[in-house]
Amino acid sequence: MAALTPADLRSIEPPEPPRPHAGSLDPAALRIGLKAALGVELCYLIMRGLDWPGLLTSTVTCVMIAQTTVGATITKAILRQVGAVLGGLMGLIAIAVFMPNLRGLPGFLAVLGAGYLAAAWVTVGGPRTAYAGIQMALALGIVLLGEFGPTTDLVGARDRVLGILLGAAVMGVIDQALWPVRARRQMRPALARALRLMAALARVGARDGDGRLRDHPAGLRTGIYRALSAALAYRDQAGMEGDPETPETRAESDAILHVVADAEALLPGLFAAAGERLAAAEPLPPTGLGEHVERCEETIAELLLATADAVEGTAPTRLAELRARARELDERASEEPWTRPAADDEAGARLVSRHATGHQLLRLVSRLGPDA
Predict the structure, then answer these.
(1) pTM of the predicted structure, to 2 decimals
(2) Which range marks the domain in which residue 362 is found?
(3) Euclidean distance between CA atoms 42 and 220, whole angstroms
(4) Residue 254 resides in a domain
């Protein structure tokens, strides 16, 4: 399998990130903004109705936890609440245990530093806990840094925790009642989108009948990795949406994970094959080997497209037919006495390399997807 150089990747990647068209508006982002705005208004009305200014954090919470799916919103709300409770608890311990014995700034800084050390440790623990660590630090600062000098006031910590609870409750109701987006329903479309982009990658460097290179979408590598990451993120978020866990949902979640893992393992070979095609100065020769390589490469792209359809629950028959064709091509490769190129035949050596790469990918792609 040929090595892929940065020069090869430049033709697959865009020179700069694509910019949205002027005047374009994402409907999903607009719905999230409207839900957050409604949550802020409701929390503000509750705060004013109760004459409780300390609940102002509820309005901030509505904006901070508004996410693309119900599961993501619940996850962000839980992390914010847990962080606020832990930070307030650390502030309570500091006030009850250490503050009565502090006699100067060094001792106070030592207590504050220990609390922020714990918050930083949670923050760097990974993306699943980072937001809780940030909230721990904020809550601890509100409790201990509300005024100059040692403090014994716990009202700030109480109001912050209650405000976050109120904001999370309001946004939870709004998110469930107004345009709910279930992460479980987004897993398969995201994975199918990644597979279709991989099919486009499998055609990078292919030529038309007149020998000219076909156009291919820009930014394939970035788009593929983003779609695969989104599928995994939706899988994690789906577990927070409160749906009953059944053997069917567990099997679906495991299947998504396995397909994503197999797709990620397939990507280096697809990029290497794209590099081999882009490095070829001439179209494939009209020989038995050339036609076989061309058919293998086209079958790889078609298999990826059919797998995407099968992931979304459509066209399972086409996938079975393509897998049968892939087995036939693989068997033919071992039966045909392909002629090895001469030592100085660079074009022939490239063709044999493409043949080997294509068959490796053909076997991998045939095992990708449902019922593989």
Answers:
(1) 0.79
(2) 183-208+215-366
(3) 43
(4) yes
